[in-house]
Write a structure and sequence with these properties.
One of its GO terms (molecular function) is tRNA (guanine(37)-N1)-methyltransferase activity. With about 280 residues, this protein is an alpha/beta fold. It has 8 helices and 9 strands. The structure holds adenine (ADE).
């Protein structure tokens, strides 16, 4: 996969030389090209931003420099491949669509990704309007918080996508067992994991994992995934495919909900209890 990244901080991407991504690059599985956006400016100060129309705080990245940069990088990539391929353009922004494991899997199928991370208040919106007509263009958010710029989001996305490319993880591990992986793990968090020793500071490894019984271990892992998801991300449980749940799954969910209800009523009967606002009738 070819990956182009245009940024005013290309040095930000040094971590892509390390560990799994570094190896994927060495092996030629991941072909990453970093570009300095300021190379496409024409003034002595190499200006990439300007004040926002309509007023307000902060600065907005200028469309001309992004246009020249994106055009040149596409031209370059096409010349290198000798074809007429076009990249998928990804613009990280907190106001984008959520980046999920499903999106990572979709991107992992692409031969060429072009990332355009912004600094300041973002890129003039006409850039996405322009390339949205010429390329498949996505504005993507990695979470409901605001970073100082899109670079960290690009690192996150390249790593999430890169590890899915064939040959990167090797045969030792299947990405099908990951949290959120489509299939059995869709909308589920992975449960706890353990290694040797069997007892550490008095904490024991669950007996079933030492049993060597593959069926029971698989069942236990699924139960733990369900319990952890119910506890930490109940909104994901609501999205579980009900037809994909077996009798045992349903029992685990019911038991968890019963215990939760018991804890709630125990808390409610304690002196000094005040109902949460959502539990108070209007
Ligand atoms: N740039 C700033 N915050 C971001 C976020 N949460 N996701 C993607 N890009 C961003």
């Amino acid at each position: 996969m070819r990956v182009d990244i245009i940024s005013i901080f290309p040095e930000y991407f040094a971590p892509l030389d390390v560990s799994l991504m570094g190896k994927a690059r060495e092996r030629g599985i991941l072909d990453i090209h970093l570009h300095q956006l300021r190379d496409w400016t024409h003034d002595v100060h190499k200006t990439v931003d300007d004040t926002p129309y309509g007023g307000g705080p902060g600065m907005v990245m200028k469309p001309e420099v992004w246009g020249e940069a994106v055009d040149a990088v596409i031209e370059d990539g096409r010349a290198a491949s000798g074809g007429d391929a076009l990249p998928r353009l990804i613009v990280p922004t907190p106001s984008g669509r959520p980046f999920t494991q499903e999106v990572a899997l979709e991107y992992a199928e692409e031969p060429w990704l072009l990332f355009a991370p912004a600094r300041y208040e973002g890129i003039d919106s006409r850039v996405v309007a322009e390339y949205g007509e010429r390329l498949r263009t996505d504005e993507v958010s990695i979470g409901d918080y605001v970073l100082a710029g899109g670079e960290a989001a690009v690192l996150v996305m390249v790593e999430a996508v890169g590890r899915l490319l064939p040959g990167v993880l090797g045969n030792a591990r299947s990405v099908a067992d990951d949290s959120f992986a489509p299939g059995d793990m869709a909308n589920l968090l992975e449960g706890p994991v353990y290694t040797k020793p069997p007892v550490w500071r008095g904490h024991e490894v669950p007996e079933v994992l030492l049993s060597g019984h593959h069926g029971r271990i698989a069942r236990w892992r699924r139960d733990e995934a369900l319990r952890r998801t119910l506890d930490r991300r109940p909104e994901l449980v609501a999205r579980l495919d009900r037809d994909g749940l077996d009798k045992h799954d349903r029992r685990v969910i019911e038991e968890f909900e019963e215990r939760l209800e018991e804890r709630r009523s125990a808390a409610a009967s304690r002196p000094g209890f005040r109902a949460a606002p959502e539990d108070v009738a209007d």
